[in-house]
Amino acid sequence: MCALSALASSQGQSQSTVAPSAADIPHLRKQGTATQLIVDGQPFLALASELSNNGATSSEYLKPLVAQVSSPPVLTLSWPAFPGLRFEPQEGKFDFTAVDGVIQDARSYKLRLRVSVVRHVEERYPPATRRLAEAGFRAVPARPARRREKHGIASAPSARPTGTPMPAAFAALIAPRQGSGRRDHTVITIQVENEVGMERDSRDRSPAAIQAYEGPVPRELMDYLQQHKDSLNPEFREVWQSAGFKTSGTWEQVFGASLATDEIFTAWSYARYVGRVAAAGKAEYPLPMYMNAYTYGFRRQANPRPRAAAPMPELFDVWRAGAPSIDIFSPDNSHDFVTMSAKYTQSGNPLFIPEESPGPEGAARALYAFGRHDAICYSRMSGGVDRVTTPDLDLGGSYDLIAQLAPLISAHQGDGTMSAVYLGPNDPPQKVKVGNYTLEATFFGAQRLGPAHKPPENPRPARPPFSSRRDRTSFFRGRQRRGRHVYPEHTRAPAGRTGPRWKKGFL
Q1: Confidence tier at 69 by pLDDT (50, 70, 90)
Q2: Is residue 422 within 8 Å of 337, Cβ to Cβ?
Q3: Is the pTM of this model over 0.85?
Q4: How much is the average pLDDT of 275-287?
């Protein structure tokens, strides 16, 4: 893929040499139609890499990695199931030594951090059952997605008591202490939960949840919808309109009986809880906070894979009503990057991409995100930068270009004088308006520069990479069991090995 920016840029990614004011906390600021992240008084474009979800559990593990990460200039920390036993060895007593150590290491190498508090309300990194009960979450069996799958466990926030410990634990994490990164703004944003949603079902179907579903829609949600009726997401508005724009009643009376209504109900439950967690953190330190999702579109069938009730564009309004402390809703790992980027910039939501593709595809996507949609952040994931053994030269080159153009990008964000296109070899030409000009862009790849490349008539099969003799034997025996011939050029006999076994090309 190829991305072309008519104007592009990335602010001075290096940290300011002037000591910033302690009161100048990183925050969001509007500029025209764009939203900018302001760090040390200047627009900041986060060119990032993300650790694996288990990567930030030890300062000793991360210290060598942090020393190597000079580009991209932002390192993202993620750790699972907070508050888990690792950070809360005893009830009500927290140990953030590892977190503070990583922040101090990042500060010494002049890195910025996005801290991610991940996977608490969905089933892949759940807290212990004891903590689920104390937090007011009821573990509910969800419908199996496939015949061979067991019932998954999703955390349902319905019918929980008030005063749950998660907000207090989140506040303890953000509270000021030695090494917390406040003085020089090492930590610039915080992710509250990760890919929230319920898998293999559209809502909780326990007796308590059914009772809530058959009860009235909360007044807070209906007041928000009426106040923002003209600016609601089109798909959400269509669901409400199809039921007659009612302003009171049960969930099915207001929104109709559908899977979309199930998701709206579930999203409200999640949003109210996550909103309390975020509010508790912001009371300690009001950094920009965001959530992420890797899907969009209401469910059209009863048993699909994507999570229900995620903070996706169709549910932005429900999440904003229930969790006003969340500043940004972010997309993850999209297959249709152009469509996803456009949807996640609806109704003034800034484009903040915490997990996306690396390599050549990621290089093009980063340029497109900053050039076309005034993005705040682009971060590679793909298993975590701590698991990468070779440098990503493609994405690194794209980051370097964006960093050089940073002042231009920051100056032109939101004024209509900057744009980009995202083209592949099979895409038609695209026209894009930049200021008073209309540009037409066409993909011009290497295959058009000369005669078509013709592969050899009898290409030699590539030799599989074997790390040991055992791997070689297992591979060829597997092919023999499947009735496939192994050509002699694949089987180069090890030193000292002779005989018909090696000459025939079979194992």
Answers
A1: low
A2: yes
A3: no
A4: 92
